[in-house]
Amino acid sequence: MTAGVGTGAVAAVDLGATSGRVIVGRVGPDTLETTTVTRFSNDPVVAGDGLHWNLVGMYGSVLDGLREAFRASPEIASIGVDSWAVDYGLLRRGRLLGEPFHYRDERTARGVETVHARLPHAELFERNGLQFLPFNTLYQLAAEDRELLEFADTALLVPDLIGYWLTGVARAEVTNASTTGLLRVLQAAWDDGLISSLGLPRGILPPLIAPGDRLGAVRPSVAAALGASDDTPVTAVGSHDTASAVVAVPMQADAAAYISCGTWGLVGVEVEHLVLGRAALEANFTNEGGVDGRIRLLHNVMGLWVLSEAVRQWERREGHRIDLPTLLDAAEEADGPVFDVNDPRFLAPGDMTPRIDAWCDEHDVPRPRTRAEYTRSIVESLAQAFADSVADAARIGGVDVRSIHIVGGGSLNELLCQRTADRSGMPVLAGPVEATALGNVLVQARAAGFVSGSLESLRDLVARTHAPRRYEPRA
What we know:
Elements: E1 8-15, E2 19-28, E3 31-41, E4 45-47, E5 50-52, H1 55-72, E6 79-82, E7 88-92, E8 95-96, H2 108-118, H3 121-128, H4 137-142, H5 146-151, E9 154-157, H6 158-167, E10 172-173, H7 174-177, E11 183-184, E12 189-190, H8 192-197, E13 208-209, E14 214-217, H9 220-226, E15 233-235, H10 241-247, E16 256-261, E17 265-271, H11 278-282, E18 286-289, E19 295-301, H12 305-318, H13 324-332, H14 353-362, H15 371-397, E20 403-407, H16 414-424, E21 428-430, H17 435-448, H18 455-465, E22 469-471
Parallel strand pairs: 1-6, 10-13, 16-20, 20-21
Antiparallel strand pairs: 1-2, 2-3, 4-5, 7-8, 7-9, 11-12, 14-15, 16-17, 17-19, 18-19, 21-22
Helix pairs in contact: 10-17, 13-15, 15-16
């Protein structure tokens, strides 16, 4: 890695589907350190018209966290924001028209019917390169209230909306825009023909911006509230959290697969060019934008959502917290059937155990009987889904995968990491846990001149400062 101007500090706002955090990163040619300033929960709200995010409340938590960050590190040179994909807020003249819907809200089914009545998924795939997911943005917009959609003058995905509130500049960062289904992936531009054919208003979609570009300086009122200088920039990062996470996977991209594992398990490989053939379509793989123009060829697996929802329901019934490490220790000694974690029945919030029971009954598989067995069953099913998706990614992407990197919260789950190694027959390298924040920090630091070089150079810095834990496959 070519030396930059020296070590510097940036602030990463990392918003996940269940929690958010503000992290200060210190970066230099041989330095990559992060300090978590604050964490806060991200709890959806059930309103009369469906399931929503409390994004205004989350923005307040973001400001509180940034205020603490600038108090502790006044030299912060930049702010970057990443979040989950597909969800958006509608605005008119800068005012938010209601809290954004949650992608797990039931309304998306209407949007799927509306869109596929005009264009089947196979035709959409040729244009946008995305796997079918019923909550992709184009389906949500098709299910939107038409009067509200016509009244709005801007639609911003979640990280773009936070960036707009910070700077007053409305842009659509391209890695997250690539998940909407409305981007013509071959040109990395909005697909005006598709948007018109779906009857959606083209004028609400803002200009695109790439990771590393300057979005704008924070508004003077925001700077004063944060204790920051008026010229503090907000820098576009890989604002889709998986795009940022993949930046910080310490892998050799032509010989490895990655799994960004948290609420979702995003399983794939990094490639230089789009993969739009029949094999990718039939395996329901997606081509999403990555930093520096790379393509994230991946498949969405339901992820640790299934386990977290099961644990949440057990805690609700018993009225006390369940210690997850203890539960996983018990699961290591238990048996459990493998079920299809990607079955749509596991998408909605709620009790997972009766859904697992129903799947087992329908497929003539013995049900789990104890919590340890349900937990083992979920872990085994995730490990099998991960192994299958890695094999598909290698085949479809033409990558000679010889190892699997698991990053994110799932990298702490030793049983899951070991069983993924066992079921795939490949070594698993686990960590870093905070890959998304690290990727966010690294893109900002490169834009600020603290480091320079390619993605491979950034990943080398991650490998030198955050060595992963290795799990060898067992017979």
